Write the structure tokens for this entry.
Amino acid sequence: MNVLITGTEGYLGSIVTPHLLRAGVQVTAVDTGYYRSGWLYHGTPLTAPTQFKDIRHISAADLEGVEAVVHMAELSNDPLGQLLPNITYDINHHGSMRLARLAKAAGVRRFVYMSSCSVYGVATDGDVTEASPVNPQTAYAECKTLVERDLRDLADDTFSPTYLRNATAFGASPRMRFDIVLNNLAGLAWTTGEIKMTSDGTPWRPLVHANDIARAIQCVLAAPIDAVHDQVFNVGDTAQNYRVREIAEIIAAAFPGCQLSFGENGSDNRSYRVDFTKINTRLPGFRCEWNAERGAAQLAALFARIDLTRSDFESRGYTRLKQLEYLLATGQIDQDFFWTDPFAHPAPATPAPTRREETLA
């Protein structure tokens, strides 16, 4: 199967791409190149040559011969959406739907959309399922609901979208992110020896490892179309719902000597527990292999191996908002987030690794 993947140079993309290549999938890789400076370690010798192109510039020619699209290339995360909501809507909603319409017109049969459990926002009535009402609290989450809605209007016998509502991702990735909860707390524990929570940590968050997200995508692409056509799947495991304070406690235990403290309240009202029964019973071959404890141990081993420093941890390359603010401040991207200068564009292909290292397990 020839699959076009957007966002291949991102946190998830640099895990998903080699995972699918190992499974025998032919990958056409596309990425805008915003986050290329965030290279933390060499995690796999296997990748795909990347075409650096904004999703808003993808053409019908880019989709010739493509059988499926896996669409991950949207702006994340919530702080960015709050800072620049208009750009978030332009790229995440309108840009995504432009790509989907082009794909359908080009005869692409499958469209796997990377949505998010953040669409549930605040949920107090037990574990939410795919049938529960959405309650997005941010521009980022709102765009996810809009794309899901509009993709459903395109679904028919010739075009089969699938919506993967991922739990909050965690785990090691060559294109690391330290602005997501478990990874952030692990980085603090290693570089400062302290996790000082400003909140009481009571909100619920579902977690899922990046490797398990890659596995879910592989299973959707391999599944009979009837099993995934116009279907929403929460991606994760019901056992992996945690209070934020539990995540902090797991991290503190994985980093000996780490001091942990909590505040009294918090300004983040998002809290939800998610039911993942559907994906574990109706998507052939899918099971999560990771939990927070194993992920924390993975990160502790990684940080020791690469001697992660505090300056590394705080670098703009590993925090989406910092990196985009830098590109704006230096004039490398304009106010619409297009590259402004041909010399600012990344190299035309991913450089070959200089040495082979084992993928972290």
Summary: The radius of gyration is 19 Å. Residues 348-361 have pLDDT under 50 and may be disordered. The first strand starts at residue 2 and ends at 6.
